[in-house]
Amino acid sequence: MPEGRTGQGYSGESLLFLTDEQLRQGIEAMFFAYRGFTADPDRILAELSYGRAHHRAIHFINRSPGTTVNNLLSILGVTKQSLNRVLRTLIGDGLVESKVGELDKRERHLYLTDQGAALEATLSDAQRARMRAAYKDAGPEAVQGFKKVLEAMMDADMRRAYAKLRETGA
Amino acid sequence: MPEGRTGQGYSGESLLFLTDEQLRQGIEAMFFAYRGFTADPDRILAELSYGRAHHRAIHFINRSPGTTVNNLLSILGVTKQSLNRVLRTLIGDGLVESKVGELDKRERHLYLTDQGAALEATLSDAQRARMRAAYKDAGPEAVQGFKKVLEAMMDADMRRAYAKLRETGA
DNA sequence: CAGTTTATGTCAGTGTTGTTGACATTCCAA
DNA sequence: TTGGAATGTCAACAACACTGACATAAACTG
What we know:
The structure is a homodimer of 170-residue chains. Chain A has helices at 20-47, 52-63, 69-76, 80-92, 114-138, 140-153, 156-169; strands at 67-68, 96-100, 108-112. By secondary structure, chain A is mainly α.
């Protein structure tokens, strides 16, 4: 196992940021930061006895109203059975509405109800608040680097999904 | 709910990177990137019928050999019952060794066995490989920004734990 | 020394979230 | 029209988090 230096070949440029130690720090930063990232919504969700899966569903339905179950499935990267359980409770609780497709009656199009939209707002307000504080602390240049590295960390299909969402939203 | 612009007050400087839309992009990037971040170790772990919890324990025991259960507990942020279940299997499978403390016999000090260290190496090689590729893609400046934002995203206690680990390792 | 606190482990129960398997419905194409 | 593909639902199960209660041993405190 190469220790302390990457196996990528050490050119003239400074590649010190690619040492195993640097990479390990990044890995641990990612671990701790993700806990912070989810902490605020998690607290809110716990009171409603929902979990992260509910949050994710609500987020992406809000993001793309009328999306189909299949669509959501490919974004979330879970099995349809797993998603279905979450959707069932959200529909049962009146946060999400499921409409049979007009063109294709096999499809279900998903929408947030007013109540669902309210919860979405609460959750994303909390998450954005932390994000905003972090961005502000770190500054615009750091944010650009942050996004660049995150995008490079994704699998190809995630990058596609991410890009698609940005098209819609920007 | 303010939409499109943060509520922080818009000074003369460019704060466009703090718009709700920008923050949402960051949130989604974080979501997708974390999937990528864990994907490679997850595949390896699945074959051994271990999970992320095992990976985390192995990682931090490797990081701080001889650490106590309590210490690990505060880093991982889970209950002792949850950690104990994981440790029990790892010790039973001969990947982790638990030694009664010499000074304080209540404490258990945790070490990786050779077999445990081998798995740790496999897992972190896989995770580092992706990290290295992402870092290389994004470049040194981006990496600096990446770490800066992640650190700003942590809770105070996580930041402490993270800093402590960096002391040891650097 | 007696009583309390600390560190650890265990048992039982519960909830969320992931999985696979089986199945119903709908669409489409041979 | 019949068979396959796509879409979604229900049931059962496993992993892993949680709480609560309790046991043990060691350390600390008055």
